[in-house]
Amino acid sequence: MSNYYSFVAGLPEIQLQDAKAYHTTSSIKELLSETVNEKDWNLLAYYYGKFDNQNLLVSLGAVEGSWDHRGNYSEEEVKEMLTAFQEEEDPRHINIPSWFRRFIPAYQTNDTLFPNMSWEDQLTTVYYEAGIDCSNGYIAEWFKFQYSVRNIMTAIQCRKFELDRTIYVLGEDEFSLKLKTSNAKDFGVTVEFPYVSQVMKVMEMPNFYDREKALDALYWNYIEENTFFFYFSLERIFGYLIQLEMIERWSGLNEEEGMVVFREFVNQLKSSFRFEDEFSLKR
């Protein structure tokens, strides 16, 4: 295991309530590329991979948006990947992340990986599966934790609005199947995922802004607890990146702007199902 004593020691301490951080996930990425070895850099690529996912969907025309430069790959590199899959079945001459290798040919041939699931959710699913299967136990557990929280939140919302959980909950593993089918209040997953009660309390909050804050607090505390004994290693850096992103997200977001985010969230979903009166935006 490599340790990065000088780099980690030089990182400013951050707290979730910080208004602004000295570094950004973009600026620190440049420093990391000059600091960590190739093996660890490849592991950090899992963190930045979520930005690649959005960029890939934009390149494919599946979603609208601008290019997120926090990703691992440039716009030209992603276009090269897409062209390579059009020219050959399994191009090995260029560097392509494992989950892209599953997703791109499926999308280009319209051969869905997971039935009844949007392409965006299919990409998210294979991304999480790749993260959970990665060679670093800490990173794998983080992906598993985040994936579980996301799925529990989805299952709770589906139960509340009487939606089909088998469509919206991601994955086909045993944990996901319980979330899709169990009628127990905790979906029968408390033993294997003790955080479920905390997620349920977060989802009971009526104010979207408070709910998002509480959710990030849950993530923040998970990172604090599980990074405690990693002093100067890659794991400490990976956790720092996640926490830094939270500060970035909230640094320019007040309650009013949080409501704007909420409205956009509602607009994206309201065509799928009818919200209860308590979520009315007419007031």
| Helix/strand class | mainly alpha
Q: Main sheet, how many strands, which sense, barrel?
A: none
Q: List low-confidence stretches.
A: 268-283
Report the helical percentage: 55-70%
Number of helices: 13
Rg over CA atoms: 20 Å
Mean pLDDT: 88
Strand content: under 5%
> Distance between the terminal alpha carbons, to the nearest Å?
56 Å
Question: What's the assembly state of these chains?
Answer: single chain
Please provide the count of β strands. Answer: 0
Describe the protein in words.
The chain has helices spanning 5-9, 25-33, 38-60, 75-87, 98-108, 119-132, 137-160, 165-168, 174-181, 196-203, 208-227, 234-251, 255-269. The longest helix has 24 residues, at 137-160. The radius of gyration is 20 Å and the shape is globular. By secondary structure, the chain is mainly alpha-helical. The protein is built from 13 helices and no strands. α3 (38-60) crosses α4, α7 (137-160) crosses α10 (196-203) and α10 runs antiparallel to α11. Mean pLDDT is 88; it is low at 268-283.
Characteristics:
disordered C terminus; 283 residues; mainly alpha; 13 helices; single chain; globular
What is shown here, in short?
By secondary structure, the protein is an all-alpha fold. The chain has helices spanning 5-9, 25-33, 38-60, 75-87, 98-108, 119-132, 137-160, 165-168, 174-181, 196-203, 208-227, 234-251, 255-269.
Question: What is the topology?
Answer:
Blueprint: H1 5-9, H2 25-33, H3 38-60, H4 75-87, H5 98-108, H6 119-132, H7 137-160, H8 165-168, H9 174-181, H10 196-203, H11 208-227, H12 234-251, H13 255-269
